[in-house]
Amino acid sequence: MGLNLFFAIVCGLWFWWAAGLAGYSFIQTMKSPLLVGTVLGALTGNLETGVITGGSIEMVYLGMVAAGGNIPSDRVFAALIAVPIAIQTGCTPEVAVSIAVPLGVLGVLVNNVRRTGNAVFVHWADKFADKGDAKGVWRCATIYPLIFGFILRFPLMFVINFFGADLVTSLLSICPQWILTAFNVMGGLLPALGFATVVFMIGKMKFLPLFIIGFFLVQYLQIPTMAAAIFGICLALLVTFMGEDDTFASLRELSEKAAAASEARALSKKDVNGVFLRWQFTAEISNSFERMQSVAVCASFAPVLKKLYPDEAELESALKRHLGFFNTNANWGCLIHGTVLAMEEQRASGADVPEEIITGVKNGLMGPLAGVGDTVDFGTIQVILFALGASFATQGNPFGVVFVVLFGILTFAEARALFGLGYKLGRESVQKILAGGIVNKLIDCASIVGMFVMGALSASTVKVSTPLAWTFGEKTIVLQDTLNSIAPGILALAAVMFVFWGIKYKKWTITKLLVILILISLVGAFLGILSA
Amino acid sequence: MGKITWARVDYRLIHGQVITKWSKIASANQIVIVDDVLGQDEFMASIYKMAAPSGVGVDIKTAPEAAAAYQDGTLGAGNIFLLFKDVRAARASHEAGLAFETLQLGGIPAEAGRKVVFPAVALGPSEVEDIRALHDAGVDIQIQVVPEEAGISYEEALKKYES
């Protein structure tokens, strides 16, 4: 089997599965360019190329987190095209990144087609609920959208990979030198997008000096990123918790309460775990613009509802009330799932739990928990772990992938714990977790680390310089040397700040910024102003 | 006295897109949720207040309260981010005197009788009537869900609705 056919099949399947969004906690891991690069590199005996290319692409996408299921640019789409090209053509990671990132925008179009098309399954699920058919609802949350996704994704990725490498090889061979220079400039410049989006997302302008400190610590002292992370964490803990006596008191109280609340319940441990695992697996698969995660919610509860409500009519109305509009961060949303499960259990056993209360809890809590959950999971934990992973990877160290996998495991454990708290303590659990601002303190803490690490990484990753030089008689003035004597890496810092300014103050979209950076690279390389 | 830097209609009020993206673009110091029932639910009100990031206050007011506070200059300090659950609440507040200049429609779920005019934004006859009234009153209506993706204009949305 030719290498291109191998990549076509493997990448086609990977794209289908990863973009199919099964297994909520592991979505970001499966979509990680770093994982793609490491696995494809290992499978074809090009571990180092794969790891470096994957890590380089990861950097560009660091801050582009999916809030509300919207992805600004598709990182896995880009990686599944770029890594095989880098392995087969032997081009530099910079060139691979330059080819892949613009293509990532195309991946978003595919995703929008998916979420529009998935609306069909919502209506099918309505019909199954009308008949009290729990299995039918399950199929609408899993098999149908996965088949639809396969048709949408596999052939596209297969074709691109089957012909891609040859096409790129012949294109590169006829490219004039300045275009190759432009690609290298672009590859050095695009990571600015990743760091700027993270700085924007952290959003606390008062922490911005930490970014600058991180940046120049690396520029002047050449400390490794991991060292910057360690300093950052200690600094963050000092700043956030200095003078605090018992920050975690309310969390401790919560876990004690949860441990005490283990009286006999109508549902078995297996039932409860089943709801969690089904929700974890299906949460995003059937996401549609119409009612978002509604089918997944219904499908995750369905078998338990069937057990709780032997009466046909009651089952039907239970299924229908869980098909309403719903969208949240599915890890933190486990608090809602646990709470609702307990409410359904009480309702079925004859307690006075009106339908409106159950729907009210879902509708009221989905927003705030998405806000907190997206910030904690994607805005802080993911960003920091992926950044550290990518910094190992860009130096060719395959150990980086561990951080990416760790993110999946951590958030899975977090989701299970939250689910248990919700089920045992009901909606009070949400109040207790947010009370005292512990979550916000941890976010602040992580924001400080994030700013610091992003600064450090920008220094080692964003590469832009100028070849300009003027000769006056005996004396040659090299512009880059002059810039370095002012402050090393000043152009790289300027690039990150420019992108940040564009996002925050000019409200430029990622696509627009991509076009601007590409144009700067092309023009800069053509005129001989910029070099890699 | 605060300045209204953002006004958005979003069925989920405070959530991921609002917290991680828009509140940062708006440089919000104060989020004011304008809703007639949320304030009565003590539990939910406390959750919304606690779910905001540190440094951002959350206030829940009814439409008349919000308008009156705005007129008195007591709506909040710094940059104020207004959030409405639906277009009706936005219109009611504007007519009561809450003078926002731009209104962003960012999340209106597709229910029976509504038509999806933009991913995650659906309009029905009553929404169209309300945004027409706001538009006639000089409010710039924009439809956009996340900052990374461009939105559509009032005219485009109506065209989509009528097609």
In short:
Chain A is mainly alpha-helical. Chain A is about 75% helix and about 0% strand. The mean pLDDT of chain A is about 90.
Provide key terms for this protein.
heterodimer, A: 532 residues, mainly alpha, two-stranded antiparallel sheet, 74% helix, B: 163 residues, two-stranded antiparallel ribbon, 6 helices, 9 strands
Write up what this structure looks like.
The complex is a heterodimer of chains A (532) and B (163). Chain A is built from 25 helices and 2 strands. Chain A is 74% helix and 2% strand. Chain A has 532 residues and is mainly alpha-helical. With 163 residues, chain B is an alpha/beta fold. Chain B has a single domain (3-162), classed as Fructose Permease. Chain B has 6 helices and 9 strands. Chain B has helices at 16-25, 42-51, 63-72, 87-96, 125-136, 154-162; strands at 3-10, 30-34, 57-61, 79-84, 102-107, 115-118, 121-123, 140-143, 152-153. In chain B, helix 2 links the parallel strand 2 (30-34) and strand 3 (57-61). In chain B, helix 4 packs parallel to helix 5. Chain B is globular. The mean pLDDT of chain B is 91. Chains A and B meet through helix 6, helix 19, helix 21 and helix 22 of A and helix 1 and helix 2 of B.
